[in-house]
Write a structure and sequence with these properties.
Helix 4 packs across helix 5 and helix 6 packs antiparallel against helix 7. It is built from 13 helices and two strands; from the N terminus they run αααααααααααααββ. It is elongated, with a radius of gyration of 24 Å. A two-stranded antiparallel sheet has the order 1-2. By secondary structure, the chain is mainly α. A hairpin with a 5-residue loop joins strand 1 and strand 2.
Length: 272
């Protein structure tokens, strides 16, 4: 009888333990999920940053859930990073990356690319971004394109353009980066019409750089109709989001005439 009772207790305990594990992950998701993480379920909203007041709770529940979930391990790294515990964050992201978390690969790549908390290593950053990009992570693709001009290893513009094309279906940064490559003819044929279409998609998501580029394309009539009023409106939206190039463009619109001396140096501008 004792043996039977023990087996029954185990049978009853298992669903409870599974539920407890699930509850830990639910709370971890609620407090620390990244909105752009491909591992994140569609019904999980995610947070741009882990709130200061939520950090201790996020660390507690993500740590418990991380044993069975690479997503929770990645989110544990986010919670540590929010608490400025970078060695712990890197350790968590390395474990998550080893388990296949592309978001963790991107975060590690950013650290190596910027030299934040680790020796700067653009080659390692590119390797991590490439691995994430190959798996379809939009941030991996856009970061790979952004680091393409580095000197640590020869860039492959055509490959970057191909990867950006996949991510540009949904990701504003990828749309912007692909637009730049199309407008410059980097990695393939130059195409102002396609570039403008990419900038327009990213601008609709309030991407500052894309808004500035849409202003320039509208002002110059590149890839579409010339429209000075639309250009100014795009510049104003980009400037409001902090884009410095857009602020300069607005100043040039306001003060279009430059007076120079005999040496060609700017003396003053005439403004309206």
């Amino acid at each position: 009888m004792r043996k039977i009772a023990f087996v029954l207790l185990l049978a009853l305990a298992s669903p409870f333990q599974a539920h407890a594990q699930s509850a830990d992950l639910v709370l971890c998701d609620r407090l620390a999920a990244d909105p752009s993480d491909p591992d994140k379920p569609a019904d999980v909203r995610g947070v741009a940053d882990v709130a200061s007041a939520d950090i201790p709770t996020a660390i507690k529940f993500c740590k418990t859930a991380s044993g069975a979930s690479r997503r929770a391990m990645f989110q544990l790294g986010r919670a540590y990073a929010a608490n400025r515990q970078m060695p712990e964050a890197m350790a968590a992201w390395r474990k998550a990356a080893d388990k296949g978390s592309t978001s963790a690969m991107v975060e590690l790549g950013v650290l190596y690319g910027t030299g934040a908390g680790v020796a700067k290593d653009e080659a390692q950053a590119r390797k991590l971004f490439e691995k994430a990009a190959e798996a379809g992570n939009p941030r991996g693709v856009s970061n790979l394109a952004a680091i393409g001009g580095g000197t640590a290893a020869p860039a492959d513009p055509a490959r970057s353009r191909e990867l950006l094309g996949r991510a540009a279906e949904t990701n504003a940064e990828a749309q912007y980066q692909l637009g730049l490559m199309l407008s410059n003819g980097s990695g393939g044929q130059q195409d102002d019409v396609a570039a403008r279409a990419m900038f327009e998609k990213a601008a609709a998501k309030n991407h500052p750089g894309a808004l500035e580029r849409m202003g320039a394309f509208a002002q110059e009539g590149r890839g579409g109709p010339k429209d000075k009023d639309a250009a100014k409106a795009y510049y104003e939206r980009a400037a409001a989001l902090g884009d410095e190039d857009a602020k300069k463009a607005l100043e040039r619109i306001r003060c279009p005439y430059a007076i120079k001396n005999k040496q060609g140096q700017l003396v003053t501008t005439l403004c309206f």
